[in-house]
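Hypothesis: this fold can be encoded by more than one sequence.
Test: take the structure tokens below, design a sequence, compare later.
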């Protein structure tokens, strides 16, 4: 079952559609020869019916005009619409038109009953029509006898209309106007008069107060409350009297007045319990709010401290995490070398690679380093051996310099092999080490394209010589994880000796062919001892 609000919305939208369509064309289903349009019946209004006391004045307002955005009385009159009233009295089956008389009169969208009688109870229909459209809606009127009106106590005057609500601040003032007074003034031949009285309920008895004191006075048709007191709350009744065509007519309305405390008026409390001079024993109780505040403060300080520690020591924390939880790539692949170093030959960078970079990586950090000029076998092809060394390495360390990767050089081959291996998804990663500042325009095209995806570690001269400097920490982050145990050290030492012997054997073979056999080759054990 739909709510009254939904029914009212449907009623308004349907009225709007009928007003727009019906005013432009004849009603649906009517022949063009008919002069009277089909009248759309909206049934009975969903709003509450109207109640009037017998012997008092009352009126009915046509529900079609309850929404001025759909029907406005002035605009409908301009469009040629005429408002007709009909009624279906109790016990009758046929509607009868209402003709104006001294008792029943029409005023715009209202039908006045001056006064109402018990025979007026029934259903009333208001019809709005012109030559092309017609709409009608019904409402119900109930004329109550005085003993049928709902009252709180018997001494209250009967009122058919619900009481209006009014709030007045204590110690403040307000003016009360009788409801519907302006409507009665339009129908009166003269100025209406109003009688006010206040009924206080006290022990189921009614007391009527005249308004002659300084706090409440009647000014003309209004009741003026100068100083609102708590005792002035309750029901206020006003009876409107007016003359029309030689008859004295009246109706009564009620207002329920409630006193409220304004925000600027302070009410002093009256302490009832405990009484004065009464002593209580209390125990201190910890306040959860203090503990909560301290906990939140400590948490905030810890979070700030952790943020500062991470911001300052993020490299150390990352290296510590890798040493504990990192995976040693030597156990997951078949690569032979950890690092392959690519650099420009016959330059200052070559001395940096051979004396500093290689020494720290091999002797201090325990990485296996591959340098082409040192580890390549004689008689091989440069291209094949370079590609083989790069493929057998886990990292390609590129020392960037102004003369690096000139067109057609071996360093360019090493760089392309490393970038291709990295792009194919292998385990090879390319690391850039900037020994000296180099303008980006001086980089080769392959290096400029891959710079976005490559890590760049900058050498800062004397500041980077210490093993605890940022350069070596940053480089260790990019290099494979190396966790060396005692067994691994012995195995690595044996592998290093074996590699040295293979190099010496290769050099011995080369020197034998040229007749240049050195004393070092004659005693390889001495070389091993020196290397150890």
């Amino acid at each position: 079952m739909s709510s009254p609000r939904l029914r009212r919305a449907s009623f308004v939208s349907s009225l709007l559609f009928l007003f727009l369509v019906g005013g432009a064309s004849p009603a649906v289903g009517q022949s063009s020869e008919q002069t009277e349009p089909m009248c759309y019946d909206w049934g009975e209004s969903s709003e509450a019916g109207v109640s009037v006391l017998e012997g008092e004045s009352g009126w009915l307002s046509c529900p079609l005009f309850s929404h001025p955005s759909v029907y406005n009385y002035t605009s409908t009159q301009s469009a040629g619409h005429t408002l007709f009233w009909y009624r279906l009295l109790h016990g009758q089956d046929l509607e009868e038109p209402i003709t104006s008389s001294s008792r029943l009169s029409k005023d715009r969208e209202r039908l006045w009953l001056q006064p109402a009688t018990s025979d007026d109870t029934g259903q009333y229909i208001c019809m709005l029509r012109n030559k092309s459209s017609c709409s009608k809606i019904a409402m119900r009127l109930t004329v109550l006898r005085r003993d049928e009106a709902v009252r709180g106590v018997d001494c209250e005057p009967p009122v058919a209309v619900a009481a209006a609500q009014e709030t007045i601040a204590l110690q403040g003032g307000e003016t009360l106007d009788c409801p519907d007074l302006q409507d009665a003034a339009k129908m009166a031949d003269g100025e209406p008069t109003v009688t006010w009285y206040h009924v206080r309920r006290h022990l189921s008895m009614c007391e009527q107060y005249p308004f002659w004191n300084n706090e409440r006075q009647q000014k003309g048709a209004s009741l003026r409350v100068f100083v609102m007191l708590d005792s002035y709350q309750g029901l206020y009744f006003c009876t409107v009297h007016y003359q029309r065509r030689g008859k004295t007519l009246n109706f009564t309305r009620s207002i329920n007045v409630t006193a409220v405390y304004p925000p600027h008026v302070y009410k002093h409390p009256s302490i009832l319990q405990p009484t004065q001079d009464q002593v209580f024993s209390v125990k201190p109780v910890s306040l959860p709010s203090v503990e909560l505040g301290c906990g939140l403060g400590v948490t905030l300080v810890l979070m700030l401290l952790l943020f500062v520690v991470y911001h300052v020591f993020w490299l150390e924390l990352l290296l510590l995490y890798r040493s504990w939880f990192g995976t040693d790539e030597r156990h997951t692949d078949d690569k032979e070398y950890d690092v392959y170093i690519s650099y420009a030959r016959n330059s200052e960078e070559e001395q940096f690679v051979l004396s500093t970079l290689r020494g720290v990586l091999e002797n201090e950090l325990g990485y296996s380093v591959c340098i082409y000029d040192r580890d390549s076998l004689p008689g091989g092809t440069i291209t094949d051996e370079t590609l083989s060394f790069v493929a057998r390495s886990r990292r390609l360390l590129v020392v960037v310099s102004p003369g690096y990767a000139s067109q057609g050089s071996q360093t360019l081959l090493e760089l392309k092999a490393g970038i291709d291996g990295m792009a194919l998804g292998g385990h090879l990663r390319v690391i850039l080490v900037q020994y000296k500042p180099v303008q980006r325009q001086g980089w080769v095209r392959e290096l400029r394209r891959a710079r976005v995806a490559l890590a760049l570690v900058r050498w800062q001269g004397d500041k980077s010589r210490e093993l605890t400097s940022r350069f070596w920490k940053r480089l260790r982050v990019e290099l494979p994880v190396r966790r060396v145990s005692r067994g691994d050290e012995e195995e690595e030492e044996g592998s290093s000796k074996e590699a040295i012997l293979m190099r010496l054997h290769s050099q011995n073979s080369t020197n034998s062919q040229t007749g240049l056999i050195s004393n070092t080759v004659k005693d390889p054990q001495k070389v091993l001892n020196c290397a150890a």
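The chain is about 30% helix and 25% strand. The longest strand covers residues 247-260.
Hypothesis status: open.
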